[in-house]
């Protein structure tokens, strides 16, 4: 697993990558939905909470995955406060 963070065009960018199994196509559209889980003891709330927090900060989250190769999630959050133009 690797994690990187940097600033780009007034956004904080965080990339989280693994070299696991990847996310099957049948699961990809369901990610972030409440109570959807592939784990035996999961609640299906973790990724949904992440999506909501990022959205509340006017950010975006997306992923690139390839079965058998791994997955990279990218989170983009604006650094500029639109109300007063200052940076956080």
From TrEMBL:
The EC designation for this entry is 2.7.13.3
Q: Which residues form a coiled coil?
A: none
Supply the alphabetized keyword list: ATP-binding, Kinase, Nucleotide-binding, Transferase, Two-component regulatory system
The Swiss-Prot or TrEMBL record annotates one GO molecular function as: ATP binding
Which is an annotated Pfam family here? Answer: HATPase_c
> Which EC main class describes this enzyme?
transferase
Domain Histidine kinase span(s) in chain numbering: 1-81
Keyword Kinase included in the entry's annotation = yes
**Catalytic activity, per the record?**
ATP + protein L-histidine = ADP + protein N-phospho-L-histidine
Query: Which superkingdom does the taxonomy of this entry point to?
Result: Bacteria
Q: What is this protein called?
A: histidine kinase
Per the UniProt entry, what species is this protein from, by scientific name? Metabacillus endolithicus
